Request: fold
Amino acid sequence: MSAIASDRADNANGRLRPMREDDLDTVMEIERRAYPFPWTHGIFRDCLRAGYPAWILHEGERILGYGVLSVAADEAHVLNLCIDPRAQGHGLGRRLLRALLKLAHGHGARRVFLEVRPSNPHAIALYDDEGFNEIGRRPRYYPAHVGREDAIVMAIELLD
Reply:
C-alpha cells in the first residue's frame, strides 16, 4: 500500500484511493458507458466484500476510472481496469495499471495475469507496452453482439 500512498502525491492526473460500496453507482455509470457487456453492480459489490483490492482514480469528486485485482499466493489477476470514455487518451489507464501492478507486488504477487478482447486494440497496445506478453487464448470467453469473442490471456513477471 505504500507504493499507492506515494503515488497519491503525484496527482497531476488524479488521485488514487480504495473503492467503496458508495462508489458503485458511479462506477456502474462508467462501466455502462465503456463496455457493451458491463459487469453488474453485484459483481463489484461481491469483489469489495471478498476483500479484493479495488481502487478508484479520481479528480476531486469525479471518478475517472477504477481497477479491481484478485491476489492469491504469488499471483494476481487484473479483473477489471476501466477509464471513463470521457477521460481516455490522457495516460490515465497507464497510470492506473502501474498502480495496480505496484499493489499486486506489495501483496506478494510475482506474476500478474489479465484477459483482454481482441477487439480492444488500445488496451492490447497498453498492456504490450507495459511489458505484458500474450500467453494464450480463451475461446468464446466474452459475450459479443453475435456469438462469443475469444479472450487474449496476457501475463507479466514482476521483478524486485
Q: What stands out?
A: The chain has five helices and seven strands. The CA atoms of residues 95 and 124 lie 15 Å apart. Helices lie at 2-9, 24-34, 41-49, 92-106, 121-129. Strands lie at 15-18, 54-59, 62-72, 75-83, 111-116, 133-143, 148-157.
